[in-house]
Design brief:
heterodimer, A: mainly alpha, Serine Threonine Protein Phosphatase 5, Tetratricopeptide repeat, 2 domains, about 75% helix, extended, B: mainly alpha
Chain lengths: ~260, ~200
């Protein structure tokens, strides 16, 4: 048997496509030859590895983003003052030991240094990068064609306009399931997702709108850029801002944001 | 391990698979303090501890996603062991810093050790597979990506303008080549001995 034939049997085995004859052939092969058996085991593992790796990338990224956020929150709650003081003491210690002559600093200087550091910290923190909320102006949802789903439409509008995005998502997704090609529903559904930090799902919605030809085409690019901004993915955000054409409603805002992140 | 009932802490494994923010926050609240304490005692700081915790959780997620992971021991000891060993490895890599061995933080039984080891082997294999995949030629990499992301092989064949049988054959040869690369890697033999 050539290696080509062998691997084809392996492949059919992994994808459950073996005929009865082929199955018998493979079984015999494994029984007779331990090397082939071991090779099949590695092939199987690689098959499973590639399958999950390629198909759960997005999911893994979403998990990473979420864990980063949870971790940031968790560690931010720990007593910061102590950390800053430790850092300053370390720094002062380093600087003073670097010089040949050791200057002993009076105790109050630590307090001064610490307060200066805190003031700087607060200053830079509040200045650090543009934020999603500074740029996202959420349009009001007012669905024009009500069709036969009046109740759901009303509920969706109420929830969305009162910023209850969890509920809005539910009703909008119900509306989409009734009218798959309605870009208005899709666009507002996307916003409801971003507002809940469901970044990956939101991206999918905006990307499909971006590739379409509806009135929400440019809006979707703008909101996908804001979606990236919210995740602090400034490069991806900038790429999207750059493709927004001058006739887009949000062009000026986009240029403003672009300047800030570059 | 298979016959035992899963431990109630299996919920944390499920939380990783579902990206469940509430339970994931609980993992940090409940289990991070010990890890952070340990890392800080051993030449680390908060930010390194945050990285180690996140990397460990991602490793557990990957294992649960690719293989079945049914905990029959508490999450606490299993998680602490993994974080601890990951940190010791980092230390070993960066320098020969003095390491305080502090085993008393959680009660560690054989089962936790076994689970932690299994996860470590999984992780090492995962890294090896990724490394070897990078060594494949561009054509193979792309073909594998397409055939695994688009589930229907008919669709792939149509997209590539080839017959179904041809695409399957090519795919099998690429995975075959990858199998060879993995089996010939010295790291693989070391891992095999651990199984």
């Amino acid at each position: 048997m050539t290696p080509e034939e062998k691997y084809e049997l392996f492949e059919k085995f992994c994808s459950n496509e073996l005929s009865i004859n082929e199955k018998a052939r493979l079984n015999k092969l494994i029984e007779d030859d331990d090397v082939v058996r071991q090779e099949l085991n590695v092939y199987k593992e690689l098959y499973a590895h590639l399958d999950t790796n390629f198909n759960s990338k997005k999911e893994e990224e979403a998990l990473k983003t979420n864990l980063k956020k949870i971790g940031d929150n968790y560690f931010a709650k720990m007593p910061k003052g102590k950390v800053i003081k430790e850092k300053i003491e370390k720094k002062i210690h380093k600087e003073t030991t670097k010089k040949s002559k050791v200057i002993k600093l009076p105790a109050w200087s630590y307090a001064v240094a610490a307060s200066v550091a805190i003031i700087f910290g607060v200053y830079f923190f509040s200045q650090s990068g543009p934020k999603y909320n500074d740029f996202a102006s959420i349009p009001e949802l007012s669905i024009t064609e009500r069709g036969d789903a009046k109740e759901i439409v009303k509920n969706a509008e109420n929830a969305f306009n009162s910023k209850n995005y969890v509920v809005a998502e539910k009703y909008l997704s119900e509306l989409i399931s009734r009218d798959e090609n309605n870009t208005e529903y899709q666009f507002y559904y996307g916003i409801s997702l971003v507002e809940q930090d469901k970044y990956v799902e939101a991206s999918q919605v905006f990307k499909s709108l971006q590739n379409g030809n509806s009135v929400y085409k440019h809006k979707a690019v703008w909101f996908e850029a804001l979606n990236q901004l919210k995740q602090k993915k400034y490069d991806q955000c900038a790429e999207l801002l750059k493709i927004l054409p001058a006739e887009a409603e949000d062009y000026n805002q986009a240029q403003k944001l672009l300047k800030k992140i570059q | 391990m298979g016959n035992n009932k899963p431990h109630p802490d299996q919920k944390y494994i499920e939380a990783l698979l579902k990206n469940d923010t509430i339970l994931l926050s609980e993992i940090y609240e409940k289990f991070a303090p010990k890890v952070v304490g340990y890392i800080k005692k051993n030449s680390g700081d908060d930010s390194r501890a945050q990285d180690i915790i996140q990397e460990t959780l991602i490793t557990i997620y990957k294992q649960a996603k690719e293989k079945e992971l049914k905990l029959t021991c508490p999450f606490d000891a299993y998680f602490f062991l993994l974080c601890k060993r990951k940190w010791l490895n980092e230390l070993k890599k960066s320098s020969q810093k003095e390491v305080t061995i502090n085993e008393e933080v959680v009660s560690i039984n054989d089962e936790s050790v076994r689970f932690a080891e299994e996860t470590e082997i999984f992780n090492a294999k995962h890294e090896l597979f990724t490394e070897m995949f990078d060594q494949l030629g561009k054509a193979c990499k792309e073909l594998l990506k397409v055939t695994f992301t688009i589930k229907s092989m008919e669709e792939v064949a149509q997209k590539l303008g080839q017959s179904y049988a041809y695409v399957r054959k090519k795919k099998s040869l690429c995975i075959g080549q990858l199998t060879q690369l993995v089996q010939n890697a010295p790291k693989f033999n070391r891992l095999k001995n651990l199984l």
